Amino acid sequence: MPTDEQLVDLQETLYTSRNPTRRWLHCTRRDWIVDNIKLAGGESVPRALEVGPGAGGYLPVLAAVAGEVVAADIEEAYLDQARKRMGSMPGLSCIKDDITATALPVDSFGLILCTEVIEHIADSDAALCGLRKILAPGGVLILSTPQRYSPLEVFAKIAFLPGVIHLVRLIYREPIIETGHINLLTEAGLMAQIEAAGLKITKRHKSGFYLPLVAEFLGERGRNFLQWCEMKLQGSFLSGLLWTQYYILTKQA
To answer: Can you list the alpha helix ranges (DSSP code H) found in 15-108?
Structure first.
């Protein structure tokens, strides 16, 4: 299994990948998240939280809309990376916390970001309940996670078979590390968990389409074709093939 430091290094390379499709998939997700942090933040929120900050890329965006920013994770490597990225930024706290049994105060954050996290948590029901517990009344939770049957997730499992992964790394010529996704959810499954946790969906979106060989060997033409496919799939009954599902959530009354 990859170390926490390797996972941090991987996240740093995704947005500058030499592969146009890989770069597009991750930059599209990042841009949607950034835009919606700014929309949710409005003029300002007193306290914002990121659960699972990863390499810390969203912390400066949260800092721009919140008076205080907390980064919470169960892994010290990610918290160390957050501290390095933000330096001595006033108002940033890094806290070790398990969102499935959170010790953070009830109703304490007006904006919470949890992107690409719950697929790493076996008990996502408990994670969503924890997020609702600490979300302030009237606050906003931004959530994203991969779709279970998207081609990228299906072929990622094939890519790490013995013998195959060596070829994949030769083709990409950059870090390719196991994702650690242990709890991939369908749209229906996640929506059921959201409702059971007492959260309400105010906005949702899907993005990202991957096809093997097209992504690896057709360069910019391949990326353009996959972008066209994404546009056709959005809003259709085949939208489950898109890679990422996004939600803007509030507490149910």
So the answer is: 20-41, 59-65, 76-86
